[in-house]
Design brief:
Structural class: mainly alpha
Low-confidence stretches: none
Number of strands: 0
Order of helices and strands: HHHHHHHH
Shape: globular
Length: 140
């Protein structure tokens, strides 16, 4: 059976103790071969814990970052794909959690011993589903 995006999260989340956003961008870099370097991925660090203040969930922001790397060639406003695929991603998170805010998502899935693992796993499933469905729709 082929690996899924969430199969790449364990070393980053548990062994390296990265937050949700850092874990997802590292796993996404491995899974989708995004070509990011370790130094590049630091820019997502502050996205964890809802940008450190319970705002937009770091998992959502990292998911959108993966979409940007995958669907934007040079500039977002020149991409025909980034707006619709990002809207699909946001819609999927809202359908699952009723929100994209960390302060709303965390009470639904946080567990002290695993922290935000369930949210990260769900985000990975959403990322894969949205990209797969969009690629089929657009015949990528």
């Amino acid at each position: 059976m082929s690996k899924m995006l969430k199969d790449f999260i364990e070393p980053y989340y548990f062994q390296k103790n990265y937050n949700c956003a850092e874990t997802i961008i590292h796993a996404g870099n491995d899974y989708y071969h995004l070509g990011l370097h370790e130094h590049d991925m630091k820019m997502l660090g502050a996205y964890g814990a809802g940008m450190q203040c319970g705002n937009t969930c770091g998992a959502v922001l990292a998911a959108i970052s993966i979409l940007s790397m995958r669907f934007i060639e040079a500039k977002a406003h020149e991409s025909e794909d980034i707006r619709p695929v990002t809207q699909k991603m946001i819609k999927a998170f809202k359908e699952r959690y009723g929100s994209t805010l960390c302060k709303d998502i965390k009470p639904q899935s946080f567990q002290p011993e695993y922290r935000c693992l369930k949210t990260i796993e769900t985000a990975c499933d959403i990322i894969e589903q949205v990209i797969s469905e969009y690629d089929k729709e657009m015949n990528h």
